[in-house]
Amino acid sequence: MKKRIIKFQYNSPLILSFALISLVVLFLDFASSGWTTQTLFSVYRAPLTDPFTYPRFIFHVLGHANYEHYIGNMMMILVVGPPLEEKYGTRNLFWAVFLTALVSGLVQWLFFPQTALLGASGIVFMMIVMSSLSGMKDGCIPITLVLVLILYLGGEMINGLLMKDNISQLTHIIGGVCGAVLGLNMRR
Fold first, then answer.
1. CA 34 – CA 176 distance, rounded (Å)
2. Exposed e or buried b for every residue in 123-139, given b needs 16+ CB within 10 A?
3. What is the pTM of this model?
4. Tell me: the pLDDT tens digits for 27-54?
5. 30 - beta bridge partners?
């Protein structure tokens, strides 16, 4: 009788690497008492003469406030991301993540000088909307996309107006808009 050998497959290189790098960043945060996250993995108004200002526009999506914040984002990314990476390709999805991080980082830096932003929730919302768009056929708008936009993005708009918490609803909205624009362009 032949024994079966179980093999593990690194099936979604971008998504798995993103999750692992974010986990390393979280460990660095604990080891440095928050210094690495504040210096490299949060975006906030800093002078353009600060050389770390520029990488923070992108790297803020790798930083998380704590393990619960990390898990909340990574669970969604690990569920929604691999099918997107398979459909659109690693390179295209990388650019979608990069552009969403850059746009949300720049908006934070420009318009919210008194606060810092970190976490991958904008990436999560981008992937949710892109995932809903992936079912689009023959120019028809999927009802799932309409429901996602109403439930997620509409809910974020309402929460942004009514709630005072440490959650950046604007980043979620930016992520959703980026997901819609990039998803429609990638379909072409």
1. 29
2. bbbbbbbbbbbbeeeee
3. 0.86
4. 999 999 999 999 999 999 999 999 999 9
5. none
